[in-house]
User: What shape does this take?
Amino acid sequence: MKKIVIDPITRIEGHLRVEVEVDEEGVVQEAYASGQLFRGIEIILKNRDPRDAGLLAGRICGVCTNSHFRAAISSVEDAYDIKPPDNARIIRDLMAMALFIQDHVVHFYHLHSLDFVDVTSALKADAALTSLQALKYSKNPYRNSATHYTEVLAKLQNFVKAGKLGPFANGYWGHSAYKLTPEQNLIIISHYLEALKFQTNISKAVAIFGGKTPHPQSIVVGGVTSVADMLNPQRLNDYIFSIKEAKEFVERAYLSDMKLLATAYRNEIKEGLGRANGNFLAVGGYAFDEEQKLFSSGVIYGHDFSKIEEFDESKISEEIDRAWYSGDSIDNEICYTDLNEDGTLKTAKSSDKYSWIKAPRYDAKSMESGPLARVLVSYLKGNKLIKPFVDEFLQDTNLELMDLSSTVGRNAARAIESLYVCEYIFKLVSRLLQNIKYYNTDTWTKYDFEKLPKSAKGRAFFEVPRGVLSHHISIKEQKIQNYSVIAPTTWNASPKDKEGKRGAYEEALLGIKIQDVTKPLEVLRVIHSFDPCLACAVHVIETKGKELGMYKIKTL
Ligand code: NI
Assistant: This one.
């Protein structure tokens, strides 16, 4: 048995280490995912005014700032039973939806695409042939002239002439796991460069109501402060324009690139490469009228698509048996023991602790959350809105629903979801306009802080780009007594629990064949497909076994 350690895994947010054990054939037999960065934002939140929770919790991550900001404020509102007005909810949703699109596109092109695309092969592409080939995956491909591809080729050649590949340096170029033709490689590289401009544009949409990322300021307990933006038709128009532009790119570049990948990597999909244990968790959300929600909630166990259980938050627990925590108080709970005396990593023994990430479990099972979970749960629960988007993708690629549970499928789910979100964002905008038209311009629910209960507990669950996010707050004497976060990456990148059950990353790596142990491209593909955010994932907890609402923390 040979061990391969990748530390750090790059092109992700934060610091992740992955260790795999491979047999003589190079097939992964065991895996350990380790969050390598201690954070501790919850400690900073203690004894603060609950109204400041949003601004402080937003600092958990520079990428997912908006998600934490909103979840923190919502958990305080839940504790005090304050209901923000419809307009405030819509504005928060509009910011969140724009973030979905931004996050997904940036993730694929800038953090993940080079696991599938060989830049050096693209240099051999024929520009005219590339333009023809792109038509196989889209009726109207994005920037598809031969002249444009010639320009992209010239850019790439300039990098090479300068003796470096710039943003494309240090790839495993020429690896036999790369399957695209030079022309297919060039199509995606062209979109990689276009996506750099895309992310500037879509960030403006978030900024219109939220202020510049990563310092949003407009969400407050009880509502939002962006009243003037809401009532200014030009601001709403700017928002709509940004989303329309984004939709063009998502439809004509991102989604068609997924069809390209699904065709070229069909064998890997059919073999189920990168599939985890088939347990999926989605909490749903984003209602745009009284009846319909963008995402449905539900739980799938072991790929049993015939039975979708209802989500029940009381089934969530967290374990720290294999994480660097111990003891029963916040002061002595850190227990960092990374190396054995001989310098090898402490992972193998069932008592070894190996990550700063805790192990959240649902009904004692490890779960995958994220776009794949959302798409599967929504589709299988008969969410009529998402169904045509999924059906069209499966039809165009001649795949089945089960095939989405794979490395490439996880990406496809993200692209399907992006287009779907672009489509329905406009309904939310219409609802906002409708409210304004009928003189409903409330953006804040008035309350007197001094008269609110002195002690309260609250929580908020949201679907955010990477999966299920929950914030849990306990307030005493008008101060934050305890705070806890379970981020999407906490679910997906969790270490083993005391029964040895692996987290989703670890499950997904099992059985992967690594062709060259010095260039473990196959491992990167699987891990990147989850869109890891390690900055978000690590959180300390109060391990006294206190109950924070319905959220139970398990002690050793
Ligand atoms: Ni994050």
